[in-house]
Amino acid sequence: xxxxxxLTKRYGDKLAVDRLTFTxxxxxxxxxxxxxxxxxxxTMRMMLDLDNPTAGDVRIDGKHYRQLRDPLKHIGALxxxxxxxGGRSAYNHLLxxxxxxxxxxxxxxxxxxxxxxxxxxxxxxxxxxxxxGQRLGIAxxxxxxxxxxxxxxxxxxxxxxxxxxxxxxxxNLAGQGRTxxxxxxxxxxxxLTADHLVVIGQGKLxxxxxxxxxxxxxxxxxxxVRTPDHERMREALASAGHTAVVAPDGALxxxxxxxAQLGELAARHQVVLHELSPQRASLEEAFMQLTxxxxxxxxxxxxxxxxPLAAGAPYGGxxxGxxxGxxxxGxxxxGGGGYPPQAQPPQAYPPQGPPPGQPxxxxxxxxxxxxxxxxxxxxxxxxGADWQxxxxx
Amino acid sequence: xxxxxxxxPAPAAPQQQPAPHQQxxxxxxxxxxxxxxxxxxxxxxxxxxxxxxxxPTHIGxxxxxxxxxxxxxxxxxxxxxxxxxxxxGIGLLTAVGIAGGDTDLxxxxxxxxxxxxxxxGVLCVITLGxxxxxxxxxxxxxxxxxxxxxxxxxxxxxxxxxxxxxxxVVTLACTAVVGFIGDxxxxxxxxxxxxxxxxxxxxxxxxxxxxxxxxxxxxxxGSMLRHSAGAIxxxxxxxxxxxxxxxxxRGDALEDVREALFEYSVPSQLGIMFSNxxxxxxxxxxxxxxxxxxxxGAALAAAFSVLEKRDV
Lengths: 393, 312
Hints:
Chain A is α/β, with parallel strands linked by helices. Chain A has 3 domains: 2-216, 3-Layer(aba) Sandwich (Rossmann fold), CATH 3.40.50.300; 221-280, Alpha-Beta Plaits, CATH 3.30.70.100; 297-393, no CATH class. Chain A contains 11 helices and 13 strands.
């Protein structure tokens, strides 16, 4: 059981972790999700008392980390795959950790066996692959047989076999009644392992929910329709009360409709269909949408990449409560000169796209780091923006 | 699935779990149970209990851990081997060069000729002292170390004690060997100083204490700087720069500064510890040990306070 209350970390002007309050409960895998630079590692370092919080408090089973006399028996952590001296053998690395906590030396061989490194126990960890280093780090976390386990991006750089192994390890550990806290920036990974989700973006708590609830709330189902007779199909859909969105490849996407219904509708209007398929938006998309406005480092590709200078506005999304569409001072780098007000979206979207009454800020489309409140369709740039537009229409 | 299970005796034994791909579809099921673990403070008996007995740790555990650490890296072996080779080798060569019966030692103790070798050996001790701490930072090991032992002052204290003891013992062995070589080969030379018990004590135990304290200063600097190359550079500067500056300082106005730099430079102090007095004024006898004790104490105190406050 780990309790965080108002945990805050400030580096100069930048708020890396902003008043995080949540609880990690025993008996399940809690996923700690956020894009790169969201503050996951900083939060985990503060949980282990490696970094001092600017404000707030972390309690491990009711105690501060520094009050733990033999912490490895309470909490095992894997922070970096290679947080070890490369010149020391795997056995000696674990031995010095065991000795510092009064753990019997026999445990060293046991955990080396558990992670499958017995054959290289006497080898220096410098020569280990990333996966082996990761396993050695996990062995260190398991050394004291602790009731709480923390893993920071444990599947990073692992091969499929290693990923599979870690997934099962975490599930088994949680199944034994332990508290398992795993950070990741991959929603797909969390969907397979986590029972509970804590999502952060730019240091702020965005969601603290069970995995099932997250899936129910965030997965969007729609029907994809491809037809050569676009106009008639759109009319038919409109007459039946459906709204359609045009996908980038020209297909129509109809929200909340039944595929069979649409097929019958098309048949009634004698429209030729090339495709009719029910779709379900992936959790990855749901996660991207949730953190879209908080993604710190954007990559630009496709239509959204039309303004490469927008990448210079990494902190734009940090201003809470900023008027939607307003560009915060300094968000646009000098020389960028903002976006031409007449800038047209690269793709023609149906008029339902941006809802009426939306402030017509410059460069609505494809603008990165644009401050915008969740639920303001059409405002977010970067990841998930495309989908956000579709969902809102 | 998410209901806490009974404590399991063997941590490695896997429990029956649903396959990962089933997880997503069956996730609705655990939802009603979600509130159970924390309801009514139920988590206290719900968590996992390890079969490993819990005993409170003390400084002894940290010392054992640090001893394992320092002896399990090659840099320790290398720096100490080089140091022994330099101190004993140069001591032996000096003695062989001077021995022969006709060189007048002008009252110098035969034990004092270990000085040249030890001056170079000090550089190895400094390197080892810096690396003992800063290598933890450069490799990221420090995060693992402090996760295992959250009491930072205990970690630094254990490191300092282990390093000091190791350096002291190795230096003591070196100085004893070199002293024995000097005493047996040079005591027949004309003008050789007397080599009584107190001279022996100072040239072995005294010098070893001085060198180990200097190494501890390097360890403190390494702990504060957290950067191997930077800390080693600073320490070599501390050892050699005053003497070099004094050599190139001209003019009457700077005479006092020159004098002070010369007298208080580490080589001169080390020379005094070998009772191989380079200067006639300034500190003498056991004074250098007192000076290095104060300086190292201050640096170590600073290292403790900085370590407690900083993020790692």
